[in-house]
Amino acid sequence: MAAVKLEAVVCHEEPDESELNRFSDNGSQTVVYQLLDQIHNHDNTSRGLSERFLRWRRRYLPVDGDNRREHGSVKQSGPLVSGAAYCISSCSMIIMNKIVLSTYNFNAGISLMLYQNLISCLVVAVLNLSGVVSVEKFNWKLIRVWMPVNVIFVGMLISGMYSLKYINVAMVTILKNATNIITAIGELYMFRKRQNNKVWAAMFMMIISAISGGITDLTFDAVGYTWQLANCVLTASYSLTLRRVMDKAKQSTKSGSLNEVSMVLLNNLLSIPFGIILIILLGEWRYVISTDVTKDTMFCVVATASGFLGLAISFTSMWFLHQTGPTTYSLVGSLNKVPISLAGLVLFNVPLSLPNLFSILFGLFAGVVFARAKMS
After folding, report:
1. 33-42 CB contacts, 8 Å cutoff, 24+ apart
2. Please, which residues have CB within 8 angstroms of residue 126's CB and are 6 or more apart in sequence?
């Protein structure tokens, strides 16, 4: 399952550190802190004495300082760990899908999407029943509001599957930059949001890299490039539509809110009927039943792992966003394209020319410039 782009981010405000120190495990030391603070406040005329008290406090009561250092280390390691988890899950997901579709030559992208979404629904349901996550109760009003978003979501996943089957990972990564261009144009007309000159310059660089990459691509496939262009349009449409529907969807729930986990479950749950209908109409079910690859144990393991990784991307994305913010998330997402592209070139022995390699590197650089421009 492709990474779900979530616009609503719940930011939990951390309590003040002084408030946390009041609830220290050592009650006696807390009392000593209060007594020393009172002596310090009342003895304003004796500055030297206050300084001695403060020095004594730091020397003989170091627990508070240790707690602060420990709390600070957790805050510092949180973004690093969450960012690493997001990057690993994102890279692994793309590589795993490429293995399923190309290495095993599996020609049923819709069936793979359906299988991955079923796994996501089951995992979220288990986590909800165990109390690990909280999921909003769905109703028909919410489903009707969310349906246009889900139709685009299904198209986005399917087009992404088929483009990855025909195009190498590096070129898919570079061509995905077109999504940023389409989104920026959509924001201009739908939300009257104007971009600065640096952003437009970065997008021009993306266009150049995509055109030069396609021309110099030794494994060029017109079908794959068509699917990828459709994926860029659908991904941008998904982001823009989600932004418009979000507030209306929240109003359609009983609680008046819709958290990220609920959106992940809602998207995957509603995609299942669409997937079943498409599999029947296109006759894909006959291929799935008759092909020998579905009887391969390793294929089943890899396909199942891709389902878990798809859900992992959703959760690690939310975790990373909570630890940092949209700006850092966008920048790391752009930088993350570098290892994905290089891994795709190495693992799948992609025929490569020097001009094509330069186009790929130029496209990666353009993505980083775009993220930096959006920050300014």
Report:
1. 33/57, 33/61, 33/64
2. none
For residue 327, what pLDDT is reported? 56
Query: Cα–Cα distance between 371 and 317 in angstroms, integer?
Result: 17
What pTM value is reported for the model? 0.73
Distances (CA, A) of 276 to 3, 160, 264, 270, 273: 21, 18, 19, 11, 5
The SS3 call for residue 33 is: helix
Q: Provide the 3-class DSSP secondary structure of residue 167.
A: coil
Measured CA to CA, the distance from residue 64 to residue 31 in angstroms comes to 13
Sequence-distant contacts of 219-224: CB under 8 A, at least 24 apart: 219/167, 219/168, 219/171, 219/350, 219/351, 221/166, 221/167, 223/162, 223/166, 224/162, 224/163, 224/165, 224/166, 224/167
Instruction: Tell me if 107 sits within 8 A of 265, measured CB to CB.
Output: no
Q: How far apart are CA 33 and CA 37, in angstroms?
A: 6
Q: How far apart are CA 147 and CA 82, in angstroms?
A: 31
Residue with more model confidence, 245 or 49:
245
- 3-class SS of residue 334: helix
- 349: part of which helix (H) or strand (E)? none
**372: number of CA atoms within 13 Å, CB side?**
10
The pair of three-digit structure tokens given for residue 358, joined into one six-digit string: 């330069």
- The distance in angstroms from the start CA to the end CA of the chain is 32
Q: Lowest-confidence range among 25-39, 164-178, 285-299?
A: 25-39
For 46-55, the pLDDT digits (tens) are 455 455 544 5
- The CA distance from 111 to 288, in Å, is 8
Distances (CA, A) of 240 to 182, 205, 272, 371: 10, 23, 23, 18
Amino acid letter for position 214: G
